What does this fold into?
Amino acid sequence: MISIGDFNIAPIQLKDTWNICNFAVANEDRLGPYLPKTLAQNLTPTLSKRFAEKKVKQFSLNEEFLFTIKPNESHEVAGLVYIKELDWGKKQGEFAYAIGYSFEGKGLMTQVVEALSKHAFDKLELQTLQIISHKSNIGSIKVAENCGFSWIKTLPNEFTPTNQSPVDMELYELHDEG
It folds into this structure.
């Protein structure tokens, strides 16, 4: 677990099921466009239980890492952060994240991504971290820039939102200088 002020970042646990479901439902319109699979897998407690079981297993197998962000004084999920699309040969991974409405605009996700970037470089021994965001997702781009990620290029037709046409996405990268 990593502490950041009044919050902690921890690997997903089975006991997070209800809180992740609550987070997903309360932030449905935020998750829908950019994390549609996460949303779809957490619309009910039963779905969230399966989701948590799968993500805990993937974490233990080093296939994908999902972290929860919670205020120290509660079990409420303030946000989720993935380190995914892991390529151990290239020592590369990609961040994906979402923050709840009541926690946005306070710099929390920037602090979390900075802390998890350090973790990814030091503990996971990754050398390149990526953030892929749509240009309209200003908050995500601010996080990337505030954390020292550099814009690399536009990825044509990289992502297809639910029931929509493919859209271009912006690729940002951070390299381990250590």
User: Anything to note?
Assistant: The chain has one domain: 2-175. The beta strands are 2-4, 7-11, 65-71, 79-87, 92-99, 128-133, 150-159, 167-175. The radius of gyration is 15 Å.
